[in-house]
Amino acid sequence: SATMKSLRFISAEAFVSNAEFARKNLGDVAHNLFPLLFKASYLLEQGEVIHDLVENWPLVDFNMGQLLGTTADYQEDLSHRTCSVCLESCLTGLRDYVLNHSSACVRRLKVVDLTGVKDVEVQFCKCKKTMGRWARTQLLSKLCLELLFYLQQRQCDPGIFKISIDVLIDLFVTERNYELVVQALLKKCYCPLKLCCVALRFDNLALQKFFYIIKITDPSLLVKLEIVHNVRLEMEHLEILFNSIHFPLLMSLTLPARTFDVRRFTATDEQTLTNIGEKMGEITQLTELSVSFSVLTGRIQKLLSPLKTPLKMLDVSNCSLNHADMTYLANSIHANHLEALDLSGHSIPDLYPSAFFKLLSHSSSVLRSLTLEDCNIQDNHVNMLILGLNSCQKLQEFKFLGNPLSSQALKHLFIFLCELPMLKNVEFPVPRDCYPIGITYPIDDASLCRFDYQKYETVAEELKLILLQANREDVKASTPLFGSYDAAVQETKNELGAYLMKSFKETLEKFTSSLNKIT
């Protein structure tokens, strides 16, 4: 069992449960026991003990993912607990590791890796207060600047300035924390804690600020780049980005909605797209690409064929793909390597069923996640879908919200899904017969919640009973009406909302101004 604890771990829990006693006696603890005590303290949310453990860390590296992950003494993975008490104690402990340096004690710490922390929807920590990626970015930037301020103000031990610790972090930058992050990055060379950005996400940021921050983060270290909401990056800007900056380690790239729109392409734009494809081909590590909500009709081959490494993750949801695009994907080098695929927003059964099933067949031996939301999959397509999914024996996640399927068809599909041995997560639509007669698909936001809740609950219970009777309690089945949980959006939703309101107001003012000119 994952919750089984070794005697060592039980002893560690007993030691840290009395914070005052533990803090007083840390000096007598063998160095190799610090990781054990750290995980025990994290589990019990002993903030003060966590702080002191990090402040006196005796080892060369401090890797959050490894420390909180599955260990021989306690197999439960705690890396998804973004507990505010624990994380704040950890980061302030890191600052004080530097500040409370004395020449008498040897400081060995060289690398701190904070990238292993995972943001999830349900938190199990007692305090129920989380510290998401944005807040971690904010706090670490603040602590780095505080540290520099203290060092300038105080007569410090000269040994402090010899301390150099690489802090690997996933930064999340928005308009609200931009200035703070920029200051921390610009002063990195003077600070004993060196921010090393491994992954970078941008939301709600002016294009000029986006380009500036990407230059000062040291793009040669970047493994993941996400440019998501309200960053007005268009195709010509992407070409400038790739021409001016080299990303040798980049493995994952997410581009914002409407980066590409072939409906207004000129001959110059066609050349720009070719250049972008070639530049992406030079990023030899790239294996994950998301270009959702762009219009790429007939251009997928131009964008993807220069890639030297086969993609493992591809999100082309709502990209208006045509038959030629799907045929290319089915026959491309990527098909046999795709572990995650999102084709949402395409009427697959009507447009290219055979090409889609060929693609599914080629990727079936490795496919772990398949998303087919709003794909116009109806009752008469279910048998064909089952046939296609039958070879996907490694499938762990299947999302098909927004498809016009009846309760009966869903039950039929669920009986089959029980047979997929690795399946863990299913997101299924509200059955068509729970909505008023005459509802049209895709359902607009205004009508999305206008269904018979009681009938839905009955069907949902019947579907869960199918799983239960097949001994598949390990499968989570749900209907998140407004899409899957996004930790980043959840954390910055107020800023996102304010930005959208401002944008709407500006558009309205421009429209009113144009009307006034006409009249």
TrEMBL record:
<comment type="similarity">
    <text>Belongs to the PRAME family. LRRC14 subfamily.</text>
</comment>
<protein>
    <recommendedName>
        <fullName>Leucine-rich repeat-containing protein 14B</fullName>
    </recommendedName>
</protein>
<dbReference type="GO" id="GO:0005737">
    <property type="term" value="C:cytoplasm"/>
</dbReference>
<dbReference type="InterPro" id="IPR050694">
    <property type="entry name" value="LRRC14/PRAME"/>
</dbReference>
<dbReference type="InterPro" id="IPR032675">
    <property type="entry name" value="LRR_dom_sf"/>
</dbReference>
<keyword id="KW-0433">Leucine-rich repeat</keyword>
<keyword id="KW-0677">Repeat</keyword>
